[in-house]
């Protein structure tokens, strides 16, 4: 699997020579977790012993790329800094904050004619958390029976991703449990859904009306999508990839699960309902059922720029045509044969006062046209766009639905 980093995709080490001496500019530490919208990154200039026998002025510049530098010694400038290492110094550090996305070249030189043989080059992604995501939120985790907060390190996004996990009463490693992945709406947080869902799961398991099961509430990201290649957020904002290729394997490896299609189900609300739909349409081989509440499937290639300007620019690279293949409207068509063959149990609920009712009706009409099987759409009387209202109206029907299709 191809791996991505959140800030640095590639670093080219540059030797800086003078006679037999060599000075190397390199990255001083791994890419930090939780990259912000204005990323900065530390570099180290390493020197052979005794290189600076006397103080010498060194200039570090990114040309006219608009970034800023902060040295450990010296004074900061706009596009360059001047540092004066002490005599006998073995090196010094500087931090570079990129002003825009893309490859950056940094040159190092001084008045004595020393210069790095090739610029230090790295890829800065300033859009890593453009949507305002904090991907790991242990401080806000709810206190609920059976629920605990966890995290895993995403090698794809190169930062820690948080989740809450509900373990059923009597959880034992000698038993393998099915798992429901429950996705929240936008903006994402792993702490949104547990207080709404846990009471239903807990009471139904205690009453023995459903099978004991695990619920996982992950940080979802914008629509659970990957940024398209070439977009500002590409490599840093890859929610779908980390859910499918890292979160699910992590849960299967660290908890006693039924680690197969038979033991996995999907649920979610609003933007998380859209994630629920998208993932089951794109990866039908992985899930036994999906119950999606009030899916936010109102975006099309015609309105995505107006409805979601941040996603349009940062995730889609400002190209409307990139939207449809990633969305439910395109996935149901491109994966029609697999969806028809799989016949995955699919249910949805939306409020009769929810602005998303019409688009959920349209989605199910498209499924009918494509002969993709599904249950009738449940319309929650008296509910607007409210997960609490939808869950109350259905009495937590997603829990019963998942259980009915688990082994």
Name given to the CATH homologous superfamily of the largest domain:
Alpha/Beta hydrolase fold, catalytic domain
CATH class descriptor of the largest domain: Alpha Beta
Write the element-wise H/E pattern from the N-terminal end onward: EEEEEEEEEEEEEHEHEHEHHHHHEHEHH
How are the strands ordered across the major sheet?
11-12-14-13-15-16-17-18
The end-to-end distance, rounded to whole angstroms, is 31 Å
Q: State the total count of DSSP E strands.
A: 18
Overall pLDDT metric: 82
Count of helices? 11
Largest sheet: 8 strands, mixed
Written description of the protein model:
24% of the residues lie in helices and 25% in strands. By secondary structure, the chain is an alpha/beta fold. The strands form three sheets. The chain has an eight-stranded mixed beta sheet, sandwiched between helices. Strands 5-7-3-2-1-9 form a six-stranded antiparallel beta sheet, with no helix packed on it. A four-stranded antiparallel beta sheet has the order 6-4-8-10, with no helix packed on it. α1 links the parallel β13 and β14. The radius of gyration is 25 Å and the shape is globular. The N terminus is likely disordered.
Which features does this protein show?
disordered N terminus, 407 residues, 18 strands, globular, 8-stranded mixed sheet, Rossmann fold, single chain, 6-stranded antiparallel sheet, Immunoglobulin-like, alpha/beta, 11 helices
């Amino acid at each position: 699997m191809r791996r991505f980093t959140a800030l640095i995709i590639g670093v080219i080490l540059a030797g800086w020579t003078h006679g037999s001496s060599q000075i190397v500019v390199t990255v001083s530490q791994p890419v930090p977790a939780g990259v912000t919208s204005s990323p900065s990154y530390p570099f180290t200039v390493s020197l052979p012993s005794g290189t600076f026998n006397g103080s010498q002025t060194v200039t570090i510049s990114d040309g006219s790329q608009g970034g800023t530098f902060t040295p450990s010694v010296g004074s900061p400038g706009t596009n360059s800094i001047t540092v004066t290492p002490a005599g006998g110094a073995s090196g010094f550090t500087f931090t570079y904050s990129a002003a825009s996305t893309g490859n950056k070249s940094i040159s190092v030189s001084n008045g004595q004619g020393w210069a790095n043989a090739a610029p230090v080059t790295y890829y800065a992604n300033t859009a890593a958390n453009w949507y305002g995501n904090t991907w790991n939120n242990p401080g806000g985790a709810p206190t609920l029976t059976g629920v605990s907060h966890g995290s895993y390190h995403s090698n794809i996004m190169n930062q820690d991703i948080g989740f809450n996990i509900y373990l059923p009463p009597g959880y034992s490693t000698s038993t393998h449990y099915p798992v429901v992945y429950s996705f929240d709406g936008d903006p994402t947080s792993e702490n949104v859904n547990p207080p709404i869902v846990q009471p239903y799961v807990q009471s139904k398991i205690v009453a023995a009306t459903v099978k004991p099961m695990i619920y996982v509430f992950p940080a979802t990201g914008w629509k659970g999508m990957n940024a398209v290649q070439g977009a500002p957020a590409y490599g840093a904002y890859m929610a779908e990839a980390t859910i499918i290729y890292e979160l699910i394997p992590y849960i299967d490896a660290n908890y006693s699960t039924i680690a197969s299609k038979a033991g996995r189900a999907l649920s979610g609300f609003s933007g998380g309902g859209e994630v629920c739909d998208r993932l089951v349409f794109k990866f039908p081989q992985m899930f036994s059922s999906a119950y999606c509440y009030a899916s936010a499937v109102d975006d099309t290639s015609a309105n995505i720029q107006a409805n979601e300007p941040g996603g349009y620019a940062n995730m889609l690279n400002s190209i409307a045509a990139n939207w449809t293949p990633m969305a439910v409207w395109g996935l149901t068509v491109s994966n029609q044969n697999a969806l028809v063959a799989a016949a995955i149990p699919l249910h949805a609920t939306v409020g009769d006062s929810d602005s998303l009712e019409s688009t959920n009706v349209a989605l199910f009409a498209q499924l009918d046209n494509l002969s993709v099987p599904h249950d009738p759409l449940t319309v929650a009387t008296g509910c607007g766009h409210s997960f609490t209202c939808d869950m109350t109206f259905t009495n937590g029907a997603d829990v019963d639905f998942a259980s009915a299709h688990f082994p």
